[in-house]
């Protein structure tokens, strides 16, 4: 069955096209900064928002029109595979991501859930073999089912920990089966509502235990994807242990996971943490831990995870600059963890939204490449920190000074002159690259 009969394979037609089902800026084979756009961007489509989100919200019933609904949950799951790969092929996207419960119904038992997963991943593998499309990452949903009311690995119930471990084992088996390049952990319920009844140390120790079990099992089966942790400060938990990039890196370092784990960062999660996305990306780069990103945007006027498709060129430019500074994002990618707005309920809106996001990132890539070629940020920083390249500054950086020697220096040089940052002018100049 063809689910999008009115849409041909989306092609690059340039910014003057009137065709809504064409790329205006994303040209997959165009070379930018030494690599093609598709090599830089490594776009992936998220199974959950694309295939299972129904348009409902806390105040309204579903609005989305979806023609893949079948007579049973398994029939719907099989139809979704067909429709999903049609979307991927028509967009020319080479990667995808999913949670286990996105692709298969849980059934009445863990054994039935695993059987359903095996059946659906057989279909997915057939499609992957036919199309050459690859799995960027998969993960286990350990937050939606009521069993996870107190967390997953952090649960106060050891039986829940065991169930979590089983889901992770199956997730790694799936990853090997489908050739997954990464495996993500997002601790949606790994946090607390109140410290009054929470043993924080035990909970965090147990989370680390599960991660180490995953590392060991991957080695045992001969499959070691890049493991990724995804920070988020709150929602659904009041306070999640992976609050932001810095907090998550502290956890990684505390438990000796540096050699195995990097970060999967999401723009909307940065907003919820009170950070810009470029801040989170820079923190990860400082730790050599920028692994992959979820591409979306939040609404600063709304205090929740809106997961909008990215359309802000300023943000995508700074995002792509950090990725270029990182030397690229592979084996990670840019996954559209984004959902169409409730009012965008037609089937074809799924394609239109992804086209908008891909075009916006393409524009960000071009602007970031120009900024890098012109050394825009490099020259600003070199000038601003020039005092550390000579004299007392050079000695400080070389660790040749101490408190006593610096006190002696300061007593002789206490007539200090600072220079203006001219920040408004800098931001104005940055705007020139975005047009």
Order of helices and strands: EEEEHEHHEHHEHEEHEEHEHHEHEHHHHH
Distance between the termini: 42 Å
Overall, the morphology is globular
Mean pLDDT: 97
Q: What's the number of extended β-strand segments?
A: 14
Rounded to an integer in angstroms, the radius of gyration calculated over CA atoms is 24 Å
Strand coverage percent:
5-15%
Taking the sheet with the most strands, its summary is: 8 strands, parallel, barrel
Provide an overview of this structure:
The strands form four sheets. An eight-stranded parallel barrel has the order 5-6-7-8-10-12-13-14, surrounded by four helices. A two-stranded parallel sheet has the order 1-2. It has helices spanning 37-41, 47-52, 73-91, 100-103, 110-131, 158-178, 200-220, 245-254, 267-272, 277-286, 313-325, 349-373, 376-384, 391-397, 403-412, 423-434, and strands spanning 11-12, 22-23, 31-32, 35-36, 43-46, 95-99, 134-139, 182-185, 191-192, 226-229, 239-240, 261-266, 290-294, 334-336. Helix 6 links the parallel strand 7 and strand 8 (182-185). By secondary structure, it is of the alpha/beta class.
Topology of helices and strands:
Elements: E1 11-12, E2 22-23, E3 31-32, E4 35-36, H1 37-41, E5 43-46, H2 47-52, H3 73-91, E6 95-99, H4 100-103, H5 110-131, E7 134-139, H6 158-178, E8 182-185, E9 191-192, H7 200-220, E10 226-229, E11 239-240, H8 245-254, E12 261-266, H9 267-272, H10 277-286, E13 290-294, H11 313-325, E14 334-336, H12 349-373, H13 376-384, H14 391-397, H15 403-412, H16 423-434
Parallel strand pairs: 1-2, 5-6, 5-14, 6-7, 7-8, 8-10, 10-12, 12-13, 13-14
Antiparallel strand pairs: 3-4, 9-11
Helix pairs in contact: 3-5, 5-6, 6-7, 10-11, 11-12
